[in-house]
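Morning!

This is the sequence you dropped in the shared folder:
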Amino acid sequence: MTEAEKAEQVFRALKAAEHAAPEAALPILNGLMGLVQSDSGDQRLEVDEARSSAFLSICEVGKALHRAQPTGPLWSTAIAATERWMALVR
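The structure's back. Tokens below.
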């Protein structure tokens, strides 16, 4: 799977999870971890940083869901980070 395909898959899953109930969203986010972790060192620094930012943002949403805390602004941060990653790998 290409980097662009990974980023797009993460984006689609985030949008679906955002509108799901917390107990359904958390497994969706957990399933994304393999896609947002870097598996090669041959990407540009900007791409690695964008992927890392998406990863950390998704982790923050997951932590909030797990703790039953508000997630409102966390979703937009994770989605924006993923959009930046997608833009860099197109």
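Headline: The mean pLDDT is 92.

More detail when I'm at my desk.
O.
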